[in-house]
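Two entries, shown back to back:
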Amino acid sequence: MGRKISDGKSVKVTVLQSTTIEQGKFYLLDGFFGMAVRGVTTGAGETAEAVLNIEEAEYETSQITTADAFNKGDKVYWNDTTKLLTTQPNNDASGNPQNRPVGRVTQAKDANNVIWFLLGPQVQAHA
């Protein structure tokens, strides 16, 4: 037996202890990359649930590595260490990307360090 749960535009994820999630910012949680629907803060020894918008849509953000060019059409990656979008895959010695691919730039970086990007499907590029 099966049934449809949702349209797949958002997903509930776990926020680990001692973490602050800000509404409108992007995060990688439980293997899903998306924009936090609301803010969540956890203390030591506690976890909580957050909702990430993972809809394949165009998003505007300033949550970027400002040193990168972010030209229209560039691939966009998520650096989970800096918690910023980048255009750098940061390949390891074997040539495997260390940053998660998440989309493509649709509007180049402007003078305010803001880009528009198309969020791609929730598919892991590497193990």
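entry 2 starts here
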Amino acid sequence: FMIIYNVTVSIDKEIEKQWFDWMKNTHIPDVMNTALFLDCKISRVLSEEVGGHTYSVQYSCKNRQDYEKYQNEFAPKLQAHHSKKFAGKFTAFRTLLEVVHRHE
């Protein structure tokens, strides 16, 4: 079954546009260039947090092995770049999901 790697990020309002542009134009293309993910989507969480906005960034991959390869070979550098660029302006947590049923 497909794996979804979900990264939930709450970003300070004053840098939200800069963060969103950087995610779309730099970070997500860098992640997708690893060739380990099938697609990516960004959703805004509609229940707002005080002082910032929250986004869900979901990367789909075909199996757990591809996800683990990403974590071992690429994630530390890419996550460090994000953390350095937006230090003190965000909180993030990551969730790994397994799709067990899809109804279309």
